[in-house]
Specification:
Layout (H helix, E strand, L loop, with lengths): L2 H5 L5 H8 L3 H10 L6 E2 L5 E2 L2 H15 L4 H12 L5 H34 L16 H9 L8 H9 L4
Antiparallel strand pairs: 1-2
Length: about 170
């Protein structure tokens, strides 16, 4: 389907999904959270979209490829919808994104170091038949070795990865 087909009144959700490459379920979700305006509806209740929705969905996909969250994308779209230039805001978001990426790289290097230390330690012979609560001596060794340390723990890494995804 081409965009001209959308503008000729055939902007049903299936056609919009094909034109934008965004699944129908995702389009409905974007409507629900406010990334897309409420579409017009036919008398029978079918959603009818304008060509602008395809462009908006394409923008959302591009922004996601830069690692921006839906909330951040919504802020950008809100500025644009109010006819305000979002470029300064986008620059700040992307600068923070770069900082977050650098932090994630450092956190991953910490985890990589732990893994290398664990792999250098041979598995004890009795580990082939774990007893008690120990499931794997490799993992048990890590959990005891790093007990109480917060900086760079897997939980902290997960938090840093998801901090801006809400």
């Amino acid at each position: 389907m081409t965009r001209s087909t959308v503008s000729n009144g055939h902007g049903y959700i299936g056609n919009i999904a094909k034109a934008s490459g965004v699944p129908i379920k995702t389009i409905r979700y974007y409507e629900e959270v406010g990334l897309l305006p409420e579409p017009e509806r036919t008398e029978s209740g079918y959603r009818v979209y304008s060509e602008a929705v395809v462009e908006r969905l394409t923008f959302v996909k591009k922004a996601q490829h830069l690692g921006l969250s839906l909330s951040e994308i919504q802020d950008i779209l809100d500025l644009s919808d109010r006819k305000r230039c979002p470029c300064g805001h986008v620059q700040k978001l992307l600068q923070r994104q770069v900082q977050d990426i650098h932090q994630r790289i450092q956190d991953l290097k910490v985890i990589e170091g732990r893994i290398h230390r664990v792999l250098r330690t041979p598995c004890p012979p009795q580990a082939c038949h774990p007893q008690g609560k120990a499931q794997c001596p490799y993992i048990e060794k890590v959990s005891l070795e790093f007990k109480g340390k917060k900086k760079g723990t897997n939980q902290e890494v997960r938090k840093s990865w998801t901090r801006n995804r809400k």
